[in-house]
Structures are given as structure tokens and as C-alpha cells.
Design goal:
By secondary structure, the protein is α+β, with helices and mostly antiparallel strands. It is built from 8 helices and 17 strands.
């Protein structure tokens, strides 16, 4: 991040270098932050933010789950996000709203602690490197995704992602590109930061809410547009071994977009090449987020 880049902090646009907080801030010590990942895209004449209001709605739901209160309205956060893209003259960007306890008193308690919100954005094209974007080698992690009995999985909270850090680190250390997590019962949940999809014939199968997953907005987008290429969506429990015999596998996420999975635990998927349905969905998704599909332009918020 360039120090001259402008960010939004508690209602003000400031330089990144000036957006400072105490080193003992509660959310740094205990992982008590709430965040979102949002993308803006070059839609030809300007930047447009994809499913902005849906992301802001989830941001506020996550804060509510943790009883985190702010005086800012959803409309003010939407405007702040647009302002950050506009003032920096970004088109293709990754946007990170973050709510945190801006308080350096020692102790786990959050009562009476100030909640701050910042919004930052960085130019962004692809989450995975160009070679990995063509397809990933994945390892089913020995770390399980904690269920809602342990942490509120539907809240996009900083602390939840320590589990993802461990899973990704294990996979990369073993020579793979990314991890796939399972529940304590052994059912497939998701990737460290992505939802997972399996193509079997004309069915698009993905773990559902009862698999303790983050209800992804990209996931919802994929489920909505998949009928356009003749796929029928089915949400259900997925066994680990089903991954090995799937016709196609891919991750879906705001940062990852649609990324093929070509290998799991040494088992080759779809002949080691992206499957036809995955490629068709990836193209349709790209056309959707860049405003080329008229019926899905409702999901785009132009930035003046």
C-alpha cells in the first residue's frame, strides 16, 4: 500500500500513512475485527463495485453477531467505499472495510470500547499467480473448520481466519497451492478463503449452510448464474472422497473469483485441465462483474 493512497477512517478521507491506531488495539491483540472483501472492476467507462450493498449488509450482520455497535449507517459505509475508489482513481481494485475495537486497554472485555471503521482499497487483478490461476493443486487439511458451536462461522471475523492461515501454511509447506478444509465430522466445508464447488454431470454441487461454511456472496452469484450454462445447483453434504471422482472442481470467492482445482491429495481432476463447465462459468462470471451481461447489471454500482 502506497503511503499516499487515501483511505476512509471514521468518516474522513486521510492518507494511508496517517491512518494509525495504538499498537495495543484490542482487535490486533485478540482478532476481534470484522471485515469484508469487495471488488471493483473496470466496466469500460468507469469503475463499478460488484454487489456492494450485499457486502455491506453482511458486514453489518457480522458486527451484530459480535454485538459490535457503530454510529455509521449502511448508507454512509456505501458512500465511504465509493469515495475511496473515486479519490484514488482506481478501477480494478480490492476493497477492505474493517470494523475494530480502537481501544488499547488490556483485557478481553469489549464493553464501552470504541468501535472504529476503516475502508481501504488496493489495485487488484488476481488473487492467485498467473500460473496457479489456471488450476490449483490442493490438499485436504489435517486442520478442521470449526463449527458454529465453537465460533460464529457466518460472521466474517478476523479470528476465524487463524484456522485458514494454519490450513494454507500446511498445504503450501507440503508442496500444494491451497488447502481444502473439512468439518470435525469429515464433510467437506470450503477452502481457507473460498467456497468450493463440484461438477458431476449437469449438477453443480456445493456444501450448504449446515456444513458450517461462510455464506459467500460470490458463492451466491455462481449459484444464480449457473443455470445460464445448463447446470442444476444442489446444496448438500459432500464426502472427501467425492472430490477425487468429481468431473470438475473449482473454488469461488471475491478474491479468487472462479479458480479451477486440478488435483486433490495427488488425485488428478478433469484430466488435469480446467473443465468445460468451469471455463464457461468463469467466462460468464467475468462478463457479469464487468457489466457485459445486461440482466446482471443490477449487481453493479458505478463509481462517478
Amino acid at each position: 500500500m502506497d503511503n499516499e493512497t487515501r483511505v476512509w477512517l471514521d468518516g474522513e478521507i486521510v492518507k494511508y500513512s496517517e491512518a494509525t491506531v495504538p499498537i495495543l488495539t484490542h482487535s490486533l491483540q485478540y482478532g476481534s475485527g470484522i471485515f469484508e472483501g469487495i471488488r471493483s472492476y473496470n466496466t469500460g467507462t468507469s469503475a463499478s463495485i460488484f454487489r456492494l450493498e450485499d457486502h455491506v449488509d453482511r458486514f453489518f450482520r457480522s458486527m451484530k453477531i459480535y454485538s459490535m455497535k457503530t454510529n455509521f449507517t449502511k448508507e454512509e459505509i456505501v458512500r465511504g467505499i465509493k469515495d475511496v475508489i473515486s479519490v484514488n482513481k482506481f478501477t480494478d481494485a480490492y476493497i477492505r472495510p474493517f470494523a475494530f475495537y480502537n481501544d488499547d486497554r488490556i483485557g478481553l472485555g469489549t464493553r464501552d470500547k470504541k468501535v472504529s471503521i476503516y475502508i481501504a482499497a488496493v489495485p487488484f487483478k488476481s488473487y492467485f499467480s498467473q500460473s496457479k490461476a489456471k488450476g490449483l493443486r490442493c490438499k485436504v487439511s489435517s486442520w478442521h473448520r470449526p463449527g458454529s458451536a465453537f465460533l460464529p462461522i457466518e460472521a466474517k471475523a478476523s479470528g476465524n481466519y487463524l484456522n485458514s492461515v494454519l490450513a494454507n501454511r500446511e498445504a503450501v509447506s507440503a508442496g500444494y497451492d491451497e488447502a481444502i478444509l473439512t468439518s470435525p465430522s469429515g464433510y467437506v466445508t470450503e477452502g481457507p478463503g473460498e467456497n468450493i464447488f463440484m461438477v458431476v454431470g449437469k449438477e453443480l454441487i456445493t456444501p450448504g449452510r449446515d456444513s458450517d461454511i461462510l455464506i459467500g456472496i460470490t458463492r451466491d452469484t455462481i449459484m444464480n448464474i449457473s443455470s445460464d450454462i445448463g447446470l442444476h445447483v444442489r446444496e448438500r453434504f459432500v464426502h472427501r472422497e467425492e472430490l477425487y471422482t468429481a468431473d470438475e472442481l473449482f473454488f469461488g470467492g471475491t478474491a479468487a473469483e472462479i479458480t479451477p482445482i486440478l488435483e486433490v491429495d495427488g488425485m488428478i481432476i478433469s484430466g488435469g485441465l480446467p473443465g468445460k463447465s468451469t471455463e464457461s462459468l468463469a467466462k460468464l462470471y467475468n462478463d457479469t462483474v464487468t457489466g457485459k451481461v445486461e440482466k446482471y447489471r443490477k449487481w453493479l454500482t458505478p463509481v462517478p
